[in-house]
Amino acid sequence: MYPDNNTVIEVNKLTKMFGNFTAVNALSFKVYKGEIFGFLGANGAGKTTAIKMLIGISNPSSGAAKVAGFDVFTETESLKKSIGYMSQKFALYDDLTVTENITFFGGIYGLSKLQIKEKAAALIADLNLEAVSNNLVGALPLGWKQKLAFSVALLHDPKIVFLDEPTGGVDPITRRQFWELIYRAANKGTTIFVTTHYMDEAEYCNRVSIMVKGNIEALDTPKNLKKLFNAASMNDVFLKLART
């Protein structure tokens, strides 16, 4: 489906232990340029622990991984500059305005003042935030906050964006709008690595992996997984895996 020269994430037996507890157990997989890769599982399955290793903020216990061509053990600073990240908890500053947040993170990402000005104007127009651009982010509805946070994560044109439970707590309409933003980014060549416990969102991904108790128990396209498990939906696939 994807040529290996388009590999942007390569993971080999990546493991994370906390004392005697294995939170992530010998994960191995590849993710490709422009792919929407779903990293699925119930709360506590190990998704967030795995993503923290892949973005360079948690040291693996063993194994190997490269993200955007950089080693997660030895090249974490270069790795961080090549990716975008949106955490489970809202990542922007409530006590700064929309424009101030964009300017602040543009500076963190190393953009010039001219680049920040141009990108801020384009972002605000794209999200139809002109009327609230000078309002505090804390006053915005959650759905607007989430879409703004995603757009800010793309501000420096990263090769890969990691999204950790990005649609948690938002209404179904806002979730669909958020996924429209994901598709637009992927169509431009950005790889999207998204964790979620909403199994219906698996249908929007090119491929999905399903984690159960720190292990990847299945990895394929949604269509192939449903066929393999004789299931009508990805939720049915997940429930069958959870019982094993």
Automatic annotation (TrEMBL):
One of its GO terms (molecular function) is ATP binding. InterPro entries: AAA+_ATPase, ABC_transporter-like_ATP-bd, P-loop_NTPase. The keyword Nucleotide-binding applies. Residues 9-238 form the ABC transporter domain. Transmembrane segments: none annotated. SMART domains: AAA. The keyword ATP-binding applies. Keywords: ATP-binding, Nucleotide-binding. PROSITE patterns: ABC_TRANSPORTER_2. This is ABC transporter ATP-binding protein. It comes from Bizionia sediminis.
